[in-house]
Structure formats: C-alpha cells, structure tokens
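Worked Example 4.2. Consider the chain below.
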Amino acid sequence: MPLVLHPQAPAGHRRLRSRYGSVVWNDVSVTPTASFRTVVAWRGRRQPVALKLSLGARVGGVSRSLKEFQLAGGIIISRLLDTISRTDRREVEFDWFPEPAGLVDTKSGNGWLLRLLPSMLDGSHRGDLIPAFSLIAPRNERPPRIVDLIHASALKPETFVIENVLGPYVRALAYVMFEHGIHLEAHAQNVLFETRNDSLTGRVILRDFSDGTVSIALRIAKRRVFPDLARCGSSSAPFPLASAAADHMSNDGRPWLMRAQDTV
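Applying the procedure from the previous section yields the following structure tokens:
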C-alpha cells in the first residue's frame, strides 16, 4: 500500500524517502487545491480522486501534517454519513465527498487520506460545485460570482442570500447535527454549492471530515445505526476508533473542539 508524499513532506516522511527511496507515478497528473495539502489526482480518463496529504509546514500557526487520529476520525465520520439514505440526501438536498480510506507511517503517525468525488456516490450531479469562498471572493476587477447570480435571479440580494445560501446551509448542517449527531467544520472552504445554468440549485456539498466529531449519545437516543468499526481499521491502532471521531483524543479525555458549538 503506497505512502503518498506531498512535495513539501514532513520530516518523518522525508526520512523514510531518504532511507527507502520513492517512486514517481509519471502517468498520474496532479494539481493542488485551495487548501494546498489536498491535491486532485487522475490517470488518463479515469475518475479523478482527491488526496489529503501530510504537509511539512505550519499554516495559520498550525502544523498541517495529517495525524492518525484525524485520519481515523475522517473515515469514521464518512462511514456514519454513509448510513444516511439517498432518499434523505435528495430531500435535504445535500451530499459529501466520501473519505473511505487512508494510510499512516506508524513511526511519525502522519499519513494521507483518500477523498472521492460526490459524483462517484450519486450520479445526480449535473452542475458545477463552487466552494463558498469562491462564491464570495472578488475576481480581480470583477465582483464576486454571487453578484452575477443575484442579478440573473432578479431577486433582492437579501432574499437571494437567505433562500439560496443561508437556507440550504442551515438545512443541511442542522440535519446532520440534530438528526445524526454529526458535527462538521463547515467553513467557507469545506462547504460547496451546486450551480447550474447561472443559478444555485439549493444543493450543498460537504467535505473534509478530519476535524469532525460525533455525539454517540445523540445517535443512541435517535436509534441511529453505527458502522462496523472492526472492519475499518487495524486492531493495533493506538486508540479506539470511536474515540477519534467522538473527540476523546485530547484534553485528558474531555473534548475541547466543541464542534457542535462551532457549527451553531
């Protein structure tokens, strides 16, 4: 199984490369995304995938190597989302980028995570997906894309934003939090909106679950099913898999992310 390395790899991965060598996949094309450590990779006409890699740098004062408990948490959150039926996804009008697998170097505890595209999960996507930050960012001398969408809709700006941006965002995040106990880091980079024919469709797409958490108590109260965690990880992991996703990995067992509060 490959340990995929970022061009700016952390020290532990550079030591591995120095000791054992590495191989460049010349038939694979790669381009970085806005988050820099996540790249999109594809080969020929095959469906592209995203790879969230460990970056040997601090961005915003935070180390951007991908820790094992973050990787495990992302996979567990993705498995929990997989329990949501396609009927409910269509009704709530949301979807996500699945994170089905990853790999870590056991010595440094840093690794990489595989992220699939939503179209591989549900073929109903017909438009373009735009991150929220791209929707509202200036384009050199041109106004943000959302201004063009507002003009095309003929709605008042506040009406457009409430009906097409805030409404779908709150609907999707409230559903996964209050019905499934899943709390996500839903900032402008991790939330995408679907557009089609110069209009927002109302569909929200979520991504990046490494810092997501789950309320096990709420899921039990709601009688939600749990994935079979024994099948999605090694028994030699240095922590219980459920603990990674329930945010028991820090602060002496007391959660400090409080992701649900951040979501609200």
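The mean pLDDT is 87. The CA atoms of residues 119 and 125 lie 6 Å apart. Compare this with Example 4.1 before moving on.
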